[in-house]
Amino acid sequence: NVNGSGYAEGYNQTSQDVLIPAFIAAYSGKNSVTSTLNPLPKIPKPNWRITYDGLSKIDAIKKYFKAFTLSNAYNSTYAVGGYTTNLLYKGNSDGFTDQKDTVSSIIDNPNFIPKNLFNTVTIVEQWRPLIKLDATLQNSLIVSIEYNKNRNLALGISSNTITEVSDREIVGRVGYRIKDLKINLK
Q1: Which of 137, 140, 151, 129 is nearest to 49 (CA)?
Q2: What is the structure's pLDDT at 145?
Q3: By Cβ atoms counted within 10 A, which residue in 24, 59, 128, 175 is the most buried?
Q4: Pick from 31, 20, 163, 152: which is nearest to 80 by CA?
Q5: What residues of the chain score a pLDDT lower than 50?
Q6: Which residues of 71-108 are buried (b: 16+ CB within 10 A; e: fewer)?
Q7: Neighbours of 114 (CB within 10 A)
Q8: pTM of this structure
Q9: If 0-12 CB within 10 Å is exposed, 13-18 middle and 19+ buried, where does residue 18 land?
């Protein structure tokens, strides 16, 4: 039963049962129609770290470099802050409720009382590094350059706000390795 605002009866644009799945679908690039409605995903996103040093075995590269490594890493975190059981919730035998919130921002379509209350939902994604090149030249000069990307997203349920902070950085390093160096400290 859909009302005039496009939401099913008992749900509206301020319902956490609408906000959280829409937030997860929008920021994970998934279709909102086929996404799960569960605010606590059962399967986490995979994290990885890939390092490849096979280029240093190629003769044209081996001629100039002792070591040549490419790297990529991804880390994702999904966190729920302020997760509590709603004491006003009274479920039916089917596990759902027909109780609606008496204090609602939408008079014509108050929200069903949710079983659990969430204050914030946060998604943190880090590509550290998105791409990294480490090279040691034949003359023992060490060169490293990396490009990192981060994205932090927070959904405030009570304030109906989304905060997004993202950054990109380029890090460069140069060094030199001195063979058989002896430091005499007295």
Answers
A1: 129
A2: 98
A3: 24
A4: 20
A5: none
A6: bbbbebebebeeeeeeeeeeeeeeeebeeebeeeebee
A7: 19
A8: 0.74
A9: middle
